[in-house]
TrEMBL record:
Example of a GO cellular component annotation carried by this entry: cytoplasm
GO terms classed as biological process: proteolysis
Protein name as annotated: Methionine aminopeptidase
One GO MF term attached to the UniProt entry: metalloaminopeptidase activity
Keywords from the UniProt entry: Aminopeptidase, Hydrolase, Metal-binding, Protease
Length: 247
């Protein structure tokens, strides 16, 4: 076998590993997502909800604490409420409880052999949030529809924004236009790296960067009845290692 044949064989094995890992992770995520939607009830603490998700992830991935990078969590579990758009996880001592009127965003990841499945869903026990959730779901589906090899990131964002901002919702008798949050994005995903270097906007931009063959993406959309802009607030609860930090 010459060097070219050897390289081709190694690439084939790598792709097979990648595909099987992504499929396994996606199926595990689907099962946990379904179980979580049935498990969550008003009155539960956010700690209870996160522990259920993380314990389920450990069980279904076969997580081994002695080899934590093989399979297990993709990133800290998020359970952001209401005007908190993303990246809230209860720290020790947090006694926050889920209320019937809350709009909760559950965001968790599953990792198999370094390949991360990043997916989220919104839920509420109050029907008043349904139009907003449907707007975001429709925008997400549109982003997935238009993405692909050679798709330009700015054009993907434009498609998401157009669908998102075609929706309206009513709160306390007042009608609001749904706005795409301009400073939150989707992103590419690399091996063991949740933010892989490319950002997928959810508004129209002039970014002509193209999606490329072999890349993995999280299409993340965020809709708001507010100004369409977020800022950092509260305690830090999400941490990650810097992969290229000086040793």
């Amino acid at each position: 076998m010459d060097s070219d044949e050897q390289k081709a064989k190694e690439k084939h094995v790598e792709w097979q590993t990648r595909i099987s890992s992504v499929r396994e992770g996606a199926e595990i995520h689907r099962q946990i997502r379904q179980a979580t939607q049935q498990y969550i009830q008003p009155g539960m603490t956010m700690v209870q909800i996160c522990e259920f998700i993380e314990q389920s992830t450990q069980k279904l991935t076969g997580y081994n604490p002695e080899r934590p990078l093989d399979r297990g969590y993709g990133f800290p579990t998020g359970c952001s409420l209401n005007n908190c758009a993303a990246h809230y996880t209860p720290n020790p001592g947090d006694k926050t409880q889920l209320k019937k009127t809350d709009l909760c965003k559950i965001d968790f990841g599953v990792q198999i052999n370094g390949y991360i499945i990043d997916s989220a869903f919104s839920m509420s026990f109050d029907e008043m949030h349904e139009p907003l959730m449907q707007a975001v779901k429709a925008a997400t589906n549109e982003g997935v529809r238009v993405m692909g090899i050679d798709a330009r990131l700015g054009e993907v964002g434009a498609a998401i924004q157009e669908v998102m901002e075609s929706h309206e919702c009513v709160y306390n008798g007042k009608t609001y236009k749904v706005k795409a949050i301009q400073n939150l994005n989707g992103h590419s995903i690399g091996p063991w790296v949740i933010h892989g270097g490319k950002s997928v906007p959810i508004i129209k931009t002039e970014d002509n960067t193209k999606m490329e063959e072999g890349e993995l993406y999280a299409i993340e959309t965020f809709g708001s009845t507010g100004k369409g802009f977020v800022y950092g607030d509260g305690e830090s609860s999400h941490f990650s290692m810097i992969g290229d930090a000086a040793k």
